[in-house]
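[step 3/7] inverse_fold.run input=structure_tokens len=327
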């Protein structure tokens, strides 16, 4: 609403699972569980959106002067929120494909031809070692084209030639690279690993019966007709590919946080024309042109990413824990 959105009903919806209740988010309890620990979100701008949500949720109970937010550290790849009294961090690390790509610069990543090096992950992964809670995602950057460009050779050696590979095939290969690194390098006695499901777009209003609508602009209510088949364009092949790879883990448990279907209902929750472009709010002229400028990818805060974080919270606080773990 700080960016000019007038309605606030998108903030008031809560997800109610069948046959159970999510625990109420208690920021102080979570901070206690994070004492002397690191929670890191790794991935693309949707995981950054979720990181922002988590920071907002926990910082509200910490007095001024007892918290620090530092952006673009670690050569620009990391944003770090530090809760002084708990010696706890909530971090974000930019790696939109998890493996190396030509989009790895967090400040200059909107390159026209996105190219991945699908078996190369060590450059990013060295920053994940020793983290207590790792929350991975990769999805939205895969949707630009039907085929992915896969580098032949390495960026370090100056290679530029690539081959085009079917999107689901490339996605599965990247997740296999990631899974192999996790299984070989993560200590499951110390680190808990999550993989977030796919965050959907809402750019096809005819999918929810709004003929003549423009993307998600002017949407103020969730999709309520759940009896009809809903197709907002989610690539469920990538969802299935992620599920297949997650079943291959042997040594390290990885928890899949399934947010996709519930998020598909939230056509009302995107930033739409109340968004930033290159760090600046849209002008009135730009806001009047939602076909060009409406952001129907990212989410308002407070809003839907708070629900995703409630799932993480429920898992973290439900695990056995004693004060001995503070050391």
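[step 3/7] decode complete -> sequence:
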């Amino acid at each position: 609403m700080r960016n000019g959105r007038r309605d606030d009903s998108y903030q008031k919806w809560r997800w109610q699972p069948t046959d159970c209740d999510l625990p109420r988010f208690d920021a102080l309890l979570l901070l206690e569980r994070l004492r002397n620990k690191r929670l890191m979100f790794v991935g693309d701008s949707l995981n950054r959106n979720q990181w922002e949500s988590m920071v907002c949720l926990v910082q509200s109970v910490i007095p001024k002067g007892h918290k620090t937010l530092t952006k673009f550290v670690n050569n620009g790849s990391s944003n770090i929120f530090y809760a002084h009294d708990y010696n706890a961090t909530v971090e974000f690390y930019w790696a939109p494909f998890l493996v190396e790509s030509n989009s790895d610069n967090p400040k200059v990543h909107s390159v026209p031809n996105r190219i991945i090096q699908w078996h190369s992950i060590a450059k990013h992964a060295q920053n994940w070692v020793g983290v207590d809670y790792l929350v991975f995602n990769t999805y939205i950057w895969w949707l630009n084209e039907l085929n992915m460009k896969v580098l032949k050779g390495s960026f370090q050696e100056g290679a530029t030639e690539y081959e085009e590979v079917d999107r689901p095939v490339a996605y599965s290969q990247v997740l296999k690279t990631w899974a192999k690194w996790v299984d070989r390098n993560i200590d499951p006695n110390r680190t808990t690993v999550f993989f977030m499901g796919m965050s959907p777009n809402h750019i096809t209003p005819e999918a929810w019966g709004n003929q003549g609508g423009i993307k998600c602009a002017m949407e103020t209510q969730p999709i309520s007709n759940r009896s009809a088949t809903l197709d907002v364009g989610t690539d469920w092949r990538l969802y299935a590919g992620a599920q297949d790879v997650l079943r291959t883990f042997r040594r390290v448990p990885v928890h899949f946080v399934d947010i996709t279907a519930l998020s598909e209902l939230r056509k009302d929750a995107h930033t739409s024309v109340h968004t930033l472009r290159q760090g600046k709010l849209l002008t009135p002229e730009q806001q009047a042109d939602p076909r060009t400028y409406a952001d129907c990818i990212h989410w308002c805060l407070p809003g839907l990413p708070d629900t995703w974080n409630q799932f993480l919270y429920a898992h973290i606080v439900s695990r056995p824990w004693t004060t001995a773990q503070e050391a």
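[step 4/7] annotate
The first helix runs from residue 27 to 33.
The chain has a mean pLDDT of 94.
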